[in-house]
Queue: 2 jobs
Job 1
Amino acid sequence: MLLKIQIIFTKVINLETQFMKIQFLLIVSIFFLLQSCDFKSSVNKDLISGVSTKGSGLSCENVSLTIGTKKIEQSTFVYGEEFYLNFTNIEGFTKENGFVFPGMNLLILSQNGDTIMDKKDMYADYTDGVDISPLLLNCNILVANPMLANKSYTLFVNIWDKKGKGTFDAIFKFDVIDNKAIKVESNNVKYNSIYMFSKDRKAAVTGNKIKLNETIYLLFEGLTGITNIEGKAIFGIKMIIKDADGRIILDEKDLMADSSMNIAELNEQFAPNFIISNPDIKSPINCEIFIWDKNSNNNLKVSMDLIVE
């Protein structure tokens, strides 16, 4: 009985010894593997913004999203917005006389895998190189035609060293939505997108707030349903604006009057505009635009309740 116990004990010790040897060999193997790795290779995903990055030979201290100068952490954008994807302090480029030579390709795909945008090299004009330190590279994305509202897209950015082999890639999935402040009623008139744009801010109005004395365009893209009369669109545009007390601020019966518009230009884009200049008006104001085909019963009504700041 004692012998059996000793044999069992001996087997256990042998197994532990073998396990320790395996552990030691595994640690040594991992050590040599890490020693041989390029530490500029990295894979990362920002759980807040959803931007995934992968570097090989190139590393980036910070990848961020901004609208204007404001840092954002979102993946949903109102149609007409513009955002930037920024790469701060990218290192690993081969230098020639203190200059580096980055390349950047921007690709946007739809959910179905269709190519929406493909910019081959956004830094193609920098043939003499860049000597900015720390190096900041960025790309801007205007969330507009050929993109559509209520769709999802994937942005791929590939940065490469034109004098070396280093690369840095980023993937960002984002959604495009309509401005909920814009209400639409349609009778056989279709469109791709309708959005507000501030001429003064040079930016889309993404909510329901506008500024006094600001030129606001209401942009219609892909509008169809107006009769084509020998290449011309003959239609009317009525615009009424009232303040919160019901006072009429603007009352245009027909902005087109007796004029017409090239049907192709109408289908591409057209944009009636207005300015609120009276500081005594009471917000919210109601803006209503009515478009009708003068050769059929087809029409479209857009209404917005806006805060004037």
Job 2
Amino acid sequence: MRASSAAPTLLIVDDEPANLQVLKHLLAPEYRVRAANSGANALRAARVEAPDLVLLDVMMPDMDGYAVLKQLRAEDATRDVPVVFLTALADAGDEEFGLSLGAADYIAKPIKPAVLLARVRTQLQAKQGRDWLRDQNAALEAEVKRRIAENDLTQLVSIRALAHLAETRDPETGNHILRTQNYVRTLALRLRGHGRFAAFLSERNIDLLTRSAPLHDIGKVGIPDAILQKPGKLTPEEWAIMKTHTKLGSDAIERAEQDVAQPLAFLTLAKEIARWHHEKWDGSGYPDGLAGEAIPISARLMALADVFDAMISPRVYKPPMPFEQAREHIAAERGRHFDPDVVDAFLAAYDDFHAIATRYRDAGLTA
């Protein structure tokens, strides 16, 4: 009686037809048996369909069993297939050499049927266990990746929702958060190889900066509509209230940080950006009058991105500024409002800024 097609597949390899016939007779009742009479034929058969187990003679002409095993181990499809040597070689050194190459077992000829069947069964059970463990690990890795992707998406959606909450208080900003987010990423990518920025602008921090940027104006939810949407110039008192949006935003993020068990890097950067994106390189900004390197890199990048976008966008209190004029203004503020190297990165990437602004254009945005 032959084994069913669902039975494990064995590849038996021997240059002696009589030996192949004996092995087939012993194994066929329980397993699907395929035979090869040379090393080259064995490799061809294994490439067509990887077996569950190989029973391999050592002493064969042209390509011996050791060479076949090395080739099986070198190919992805057969790397993990267990190989059992069948050989008349009785020297312990031969067995040690075969095992050192990766053989799973070593059975001496003449074959004892009970021993052969027991060893085959043991190797197949071990392979089944390894395959199950591999599949479980693969499933676990896939689930971990799915959960990470789901968490990332949840985080991104939450950030965008909070940013849009601020946007509803200041409806003319439109796609401002998308444009500034992309401006910040563009600057970070330009500066990641710069000596002053390279240590901070790792791939991970660039990703975190991009995620955090939309929260820069979250504090505007705490500013009264009469001030936030006033069409004319703000009074000194109103301007003092408007400037509090930076601290309101950073304080809100800090309170959110206190609700989690461990610090989240993107919240740390979001807090920096919210609080200090209106600081100026020369120290004349707000809310804390920071200057130069005391301003976090995250806030320095956001400062330029925010100002450029504000200039080219229409507001209730002003018309949009032409792109080239905004570019000239940014260049003129090099070393005063903005970090000189950040301005240089902006000028080098100006075409990218123009493309981003065009892609996420709002009605009324300047050309």
